[in-house]
Every structure is written in C-alpha cells, then in structure tokens.
Amino acid sequence: MQPTQQVFEIVKYSDQYREQLLNVWERSVLATHHFLSATDFQEIKALVATINFNEFDVYCILDQNQVAGFIGTSNDKVEMLFLAPKYIGKGLGRKLLHFAIHDLKARRVDVNEQNTKAVAFYSGYGFKTYERTDKDDQGKNYPLLRMKLQ
Description:
By secondary structure, the chain is α+β, with helices and mostly antiparallel strands. It has helices at residues 18-32, 38-48, 92-103, 116-124; strands at residues 8-12, 57-63, 66-74, 77-83, 108-112, 127-132, 144-149. It has a domain at 8-106: Gcn5-related N-acetyltransferase (GNAT) (Aminopeptidase). The longest helix has 15 residues, at 18-32.
C-alpha cells in the first residue's frame, strides 16, 4: 500500500482566512526576517494588520482547510509570499510562485536584500535584480532588491 500524498489546494483569499493569514505572516517573518529590529517588526505587524487583502490578488495554499501559506499580487508584481515555518522548504513557495507567474502574470518582486534565502529563491526561479534601494518602502534601513523575471 502506498502512502497517501498530501494534497495542497490553492484558493482565492476571502475574509474567512484573514486571521490565519495574519498568523502565517507573523510566524513566517519571525522565522525568516532575523535582520528586523523588534521595534520595526512591531511597526510592520501593525501596518500589515490594516491591509485589506481584498485589494490584491491573494491566494492561500491550504493544508486540510488550514492556511499553510499565501501569495498576493498587484498588476504584474508579487507583493507578498509567506509560508508557515513548518512548510518552508517543502516546495509550496515554488508552487505558489508558479501559480502567480502562470495564472496571475506576475513578473516582478521586491525582496529585502538581507533575506538571502528569498533572494536565492527568486533568483533560482529566473528573477534578476534590476534595481537596488538603500531603504525599504517605509523608509527603513532595509535595502530592497527590485527583481524581474527574465
């Protein structure tokens, strides 16, 4: 008898997923954004809590109706891609990015330069840096790499 394979479903965001999505965001950032100061993390968390995710094309990847991760785009740009820590490195980020590129026509992304694993992830998918900023979009000292799909 073969083991059952886990099936992950990508679904359009609805407000029923909001609390789970915010929880995934927080746990993901704490696990991957070690370069953020505690104060900056709290400021960003407060800002993220105000986002109306319906204003973006947001899709959740579900593991038995629980949000394992999500991706959000606006126009041709990936604005957010986060996974719950236990799903990092299991191919779900790649699955979400593939969906965003092929179904949502995403071609660009901004990545924190200090998030070297994310930079490597997007580079491995064919994104190339075309611009570097000294500060992030909130004016903090977290340089961004603006990348686009080649």
